[in-house]
Amino acid sequence: MKNYQKKTIYLLIFSSLLNISYLHSQTNEKSSLYDYFDSTVGKDNLNINNGVVHSEPFRPMPNKNRYYVDEFNIGNLSFEGEIYTNVNLKYDIYDDQIIYKQNGESENLPITLIKDKVDFFSFKNKKFANLKSESIKFPNLINGIYEESYSGSDVSLYIKHRKEKIKIFQSDGVYYNFIYNIDFILKYNNFFYKVQSEKDVKKIFPSIKKEINDYYGSNKKLERSDKNLFMENLTKQINGLLKKSSN
Q1: Parallel, antiparallel, or unpaired: how do β-strands 111-113 and 126-130 relate?
Q2: Nearest-angstrom CA–CA distance, 18 and 41
Q3: What whole-number distance in Å separates Cα of residue 232 and Cα of residue 156?
Q4: Domain boundaries, the chain
Q5: Which label site among 68, 163, 198, 220 has the fewest CB atoms less than 10 Å from its CB?
Q6: DSSP per residue, 221-243
Q7: Tens-digit pLDDT profile for residues 24-50
Q8: What are the CA-CA distances from residue 20 to residues 5, 9, 10, 17, 30 (Å)?
Q9: How much is the pTM?
Q10: Within 10 A of 232 (CB to CB), how many other CB atoms are there?
Q11: Cβ-Cβ contacts under 8 Å for 24 (sequence gap 6 or more)
Q12: CA 199 to centroid of chain Cα atoms
């Protein structure tokens, strides 16, 4: 019997025996139920244990690893439509993979989850989505997992975190330096656009060129110090301007 079938059966049994009335209440109460269920049935029986053991074949230079954050963080995960809360997650942005590790007394080796089965995950107050259907529609632009930086009614901002590997030869062997890069993608009218400059943004929104020019002119310091926040604020402003012009 498949793991997700086991989980469904066990959950029905628990609901009947314990009369868990809060199943239909608030989201945090639902999360508590799943936490209780997972701890009772055991993590080994969950459908999330679906992948290969994660390994590190490249010896990194100090503080030059392949991860978004070089440690496991407690977060939430949607895997094959099922929500798992308070799980150990790590995001490998070199291979664009999510890694899961059991917590508690019986820790197993970390698992690289099958990416096609990952819907979204979140940790450290960031949400990441696997843009599977968008990757099919826009194969030359969209591929894999993106941070959902801002979601607006007209315009949304996605951030692609990635790292490139460079081989370093030293006296004691071969090391690898992982160089961090970032791409910004705007979603507008169900199309995706990669934006690298002010010119790119104006090309998408010609009706508000002046406002875009003013924003870039008055926020140069923020653009240099925190490009992510700069782009998020820009997207919010564009979204507000478009909404205002449509009224």
Answers
A1: unpaired
A2: 15
A3: 9
A4: 1-47, 51-192, 196-247
A5: 220
A6: HHHHH-HHHHHHHHHHHHHHHHH
A7: 344 444 444 344 434 443 444 467 777
A8: 20, 15, 13, 8, 10
A9: 0.78
A10: 16
A11: none
A12: 28
Q: State the Cα–Cα distance between residues 66 and 140, nearest whole angstrom.
A: 24
- Of 62, 67, 55, the C-alpha closest to 170 is 62
Neighbouring-strand partners of residue 168: 175
The token duo for 44 is 């080994």
Please tell me the number of Cα atoms within 13 Å of 23 on its side-chain side. 11
**Residues whose CB falls within 8 Å of the CB of residue 47, separated by 6 or more in sequence, listed in order:** 2, 3, 4, 7, 79, 80, 82
> How many whole angstroms separate alpha carbon 95 and alpha carbon 67?
9
* Cα–Cα dist 141/168, whole Å: 30
Rounded Cα distance between 189 and 217, Å, is 27
Task: Find, among 47, 119, 46, the residue nearest to 81 by Cα.
Answer: 119
Please choose, from the candidates 122, 76, 59, 70, the residue with its C-alpha nearest in 3D space to the C-alpha of residue 93. 70
